[in-house]
Amino acid sequence: MAVVSVGTTATKIGPSIGRNEKLVIQNLGTGELYVDVSDSVTTANGLEVPEDAVMEFRMATVYGIAASGTRDVRWVLQRAE
To answer: If you count Cβ atoms within 10 Å of the first and of the last residue's Cβ in the chain, which end, N or C, has fewer?
Structure first.
């Protein structure tokens, strides 16, 4: 497992994901995290990840952003089933 701090500019979360892999992220920050597969992610166009929520992505590069402050985001790359 690894940790990345996501602030108010688009931040890459984890590595790019291959064919047989999935990226699992968890928002441990205080407040929502917004994610997208584009580095143009904003709080308006990103998918909301609430506090303590977990989300999985397959075959993408994931970027995150916070409306304010920073979010503690944990991630792990796993083999997809």
So the answer is: C
**20-32: per-residue pLDDT in tens?**
999 999 999 899 9
Classify residue 59 by its DSSP letter. Answer: S
Question: What's the longest Cα–Cα distance across the chain?
Answer: 36
The residue segments making up the domain with residue 23 are 2-79
CA distance 41 to 11: 9
Query: What pTM does this model have?
Result: 0.91
User: Of 59, 31, 35, 29, whose CA–CA distance to 47 is shortest?
Assistant: 35
Per-residue b/e over 12-22, b at no fewer than 16 CB within 10 Å?
ebbeebeeebb
The domain total for the chain is: 1
Residues 43-70 have pLDDT tens digits of: 999 999 999 999 999 888 999 999 999 9
